[in-house]
Amino acid sequence: MNEYLERTSLNWSKNSIRLIETASQTAKNNYLYIQEAGYFETRYPYFTERENLNSFLLVYTISGKGRLLYEGNEYILTKGNVFLIHCVNKHYYESSKEEPWDILWIHFNGSYALGYYEELYKNTFTIVTFEESFFIESTLRRILSLHQRKDIHRELITPNLIVTILTELILLNTPKDYFDNFTPYYVKEIKNKLNKEFSKNITLRSEEHTSELQSPVRS
Question: What is the bridge-based pairing of β-strands 102-110 and 32-41?
Answer without folding.
Answer: antiparallel
